[in-house]
Amino acid sequence: MTATTRRPAGAPDTPGVPGETAPRADCTADSAGGLSFDITLPGVAERWDAALLLRLRDFDPEESVRLPLEPLPGDPDGSVLRAALPSTVPLAEGRWDAYLVIGEGEARRLLPGCCDLRPLVDRVPRTDRTWLGVRIPYATKYGNLSVRSWLRWPHAEAGDIWPADGGLTVHGRLYGAELAPTARLEARPRRAAAPDGGQARPVTAPVTPVDVPAQGHGFTARLAYGDLAREPGAEGDWQLWLRPDEDAEPVRVARILDDIVDKHRILRYPARPVAADGGGELTARPYYTGANDLAVRLEGTGPSGS
Question: What DSSP state is assigned to residue 100?
Answer without folding.
Answer: E
